[in-house]
Amino acid sequence: MEIKKVRNVQKPTKMLNGDSIDLLYFLIQKTMSGFPIYCKCCKDKIFLWYPARGRPKEIEFNRYVPKNFAKMLGYLQAEGGKPVLRRRRGREFSFTNKSLTLISDFLQLSKAFIDVSLFKATISINPKFKRIKKVESFLVKLGIPNKNIFIRRIGRVKEFTIKLWITNSLLAEFCYNAMNEIRKYLTKSNPDRDLLKFFLQGLLLGDGNVYCYKDESNSLHTRLQIFESNEQYIKDYEKILAHINVKGKIKKSKARNLFILTSYLNWHKLIELMQIFPKDSKQFNILTCALKSHRKYRVLKHLITMNSKFTVLELRSSIRRNRYFIMRLLKSMEKSNIVRRIRGKNNQNSWELTEFGRKVKKIISIL
């Protein structure tokens, strides 16, 4: 028998490995309770363990995950539980929501990371709610064993909420650290655009509230709001949203210990946010109604017929309007950075869509 000293693997210097996230980048040296963490990598798997009294639970998970793992961290940022130490149980990795769509998405994203059969689910239901069997069946189909599903009845819940959880201090602290690292990385200049989009998807689907209404003078008002109790988090959200040109202001609630980030959305910001939200989300539907009600939509809808490059003559034949209308339309779009004039063959009056113009066309085409 030979005894060797356990040596930790070296943490990589880069978070991204091609199109994948290297989770070893988020390795922490000690637990929140001060115990050293030992890590071993084998065949693209990460094994974590730490020495303590009793028998602490080790954890194994995949080292490389796709970039949409950042979406799961966004969900965790919005609706995840805090890694609070519970007596005789340790810390929990958890996510709570009442939307079956978000619960399903969170579990699907987790599959690239860990075995989802490790999750337990607590369904808090209103005593008057009668469709609990359908909710249980839904969770079982997603991979959660029947024995891991618990029901509790509580009057203050409108219908039901679902809490997904795994009691494992290492997993909870690792994911909590990964969430913080990703969020801080995205506040810096020129972050990876895919990570930015995925993290914002999770954050805004979980915590983003979109409101749209018309006042007495029939003026359209649309705003995005995020509510957060942690001041540093809300400041980071402000910096992250600024990367997609959605800027807002932070105010502290007088009634509660709560910070509110509010951004009033013009049509430019509507387009940027519509690229973040999935088409089947409630927020995307609200933004769609807001864009279609905006006076600028009368101009934007003509983008559907435009090619990436075109002449005035080609545009006239496609939308069948006179030259005066066409030139007014192009000038308006040029002012909004949707199109720009280019030199065409034989000095033709030629135009092309800008990068922003292509984004707008993509959104308008699916409405």
Structure description:
The chain is an alpha+beta fold and 367 residues long. The protein has helices at residues 69-79, 100-110, 132-141, 169-186, 193-207, 231-242, 267-274, 282-293, 297-300, 312-319, 323-335, 355-365; strands at 16-17, 20-22, 38-42, 45-49, 59-62, 64-66, 92-97, 120-125, 149-153, 160-167, 208-214, 220-228, 249-252, 259-264, 309-311, 339-343, 349-353. The strands form five sheets. It has a four-stranded mixed β-sheet with strand order 7-10-8-9. Strand 1 and strand 2 form a beta hairpin. Helix 1 (69-79) packs across helix 2 (100-110), helix 1 crosses helix 4 and helix 1 (69-79) packs parallel to helix 5. The longest helix has 18 residues, at 169-186. The protein is globular and about 85 Å long. It starts with 15 loop residues before the first strand and ends with a helix.
Which terms summarize this structure?
alpha+beta, 367 residues
Give a brief rundown of this model.
36% of the residues lie in helices and 23% in strands. It contains 12 helices and 17 strands. It has a 4-stranded mixed beta sheet. Strands 11-12-14-13 form a 4-stranded antiparallel beta sheet. A 3-stranded antiparallel beta sheet has the order 1-2-6, with no helix packed on it.
User: What radius of gyration results from the CA coordinates?
Assistant: 25 Å
Q: How would a textbook summarize the main sheet?
A: 4 strands, mixed
Q: Note the total helix count.
A: 12
Strand order of the largest sheet: 7-10-8-9
Please, what is the average pLDDT?
88
Number of beta-strand segments: 17
Helix content: 25-40%
Order of helices and strands: EEEEEEHEHEHEEHHEEHEEHHHEHHEEH
Poorly predicted runs are none
Derived structural class? alpha+beta
Cα distance spanning the termini = 69 Å
Our estimate of the beta-strand percent is 15-25%
Tertiary shape = globular
